[in-house]
Amino acid sequence: MKYSIIVDSHNDTMMKCIDEETWLPKIDIGKSTDNHIDIPKLKKGRLNVPFFAAFTDGYHDNTPRSISRTLALINALHWTEENNKDEFKIVGSVDDILRTVDEEKIAAVPTIEGGYSFDENNALELIKQYYDLGIRAVAFNWNYSNSLGEGASRIYNDPKETPSHGGLTDLGKTLVYEMNRLGIIIDVSHMAESTFWDVISATKAPIMASHSGVYALRNHPRNLKDEQLRALKDNGGVIGIVLCQAFLTDGTPAYIKDYVDHIDYAVKLIGIDHVGIGSDFDGATIPEDIKDASELYKINDELIRRGYSKEYIEKLLGKNILRVLDQVEKMAEKKRELDIDIVPNINTLTGKIKGLDGVTIDESKVRIIIDGNPYKAIYDKENSTLSLKITEPLQEKFHVVSFQVEDDKGNTKRETRIFYI
Q1: Last residue of a domain, one of 300, 331, 362
Q2: What domain range is 96 assigned to?
Q3: Residue 9's closest CA among 56, 41, 55, 53?
């Protein structure tokens, strides 16, 4: 590895890159922008592993709209990759990250902030589709409560702001188990404390607080209390300390020194192996003396000034978060994938299967999944195609479709795409 790793476990940059009418991408961060993050700023700040969040705070009683908004932001990230192939690559594993950084490219990790697109009918299939699209961490809440559990604000996003109660729902627990199985990190930032503790009880894999602060230094409901930090350590997880001023100081302007105070506190309480960086770039007001990602060196300088060793700084700036990503990946269920290809045609909702020599397809398990809803597909054995006819027109802008086949031994092959209407 020729280049040091700097990982940032949360930014909201894609939110700044789409058109608010069409939700189509319009701002290419391959060029200089007014954002906290663009590729020139990432390179200058040597931030080579940013976690890009697809953020939605939800649409009350409108799961399709929440799916569409989430997909719009994932689509914007894939569009960014397509426009900047020589400098920017979406990655899905630690091995991918290391190879991409060694090639001097930005290794972008897709995540979701706010699980408002999940409901009782779609959750188990939709989370698999998100995994197919590269998602490697999901935060269940963005403050508001939902079908997965109670958020930090302890209210629902409805006109009356109805109070909520309790922690994880049964659906939330089921999704925890499925994310463990798939290899997706559970992100506990923005959860109510009760939901945090239910996640700690349910998960078998390490968790991440992607962008939170220390409650003992700033008693804000978005920050983690000492007992939560200790539980995070016992779980093997990591907290990405957030740059948001409101979570660092009590109503006074925040500076890098205040930010590193939170790092210091967490390191002294739970050890050097469980703390990282989770900036919240492009989603928060950041400290007065750092303007954007190009000035991340100021955090490094302050850590050096306080006596942190090179080894410790490397852990804080990247290795700790990569460790969690790697452990979650290794604990996932091993996949049994067919060595065939499915070539999708989104316009006709058909898939052409190639490389079937010696493979017997189980025709009863040929499926097409749209927005987490599975349908039995029509399988044309003679032409090696699967297809679906939709009886009701799709209403929202963005949708996700998966073409899935299985052989007689239980091995599967999937191809998943986002499409726009």
Answers
A1: 331
A2: 7-331
A3: 53
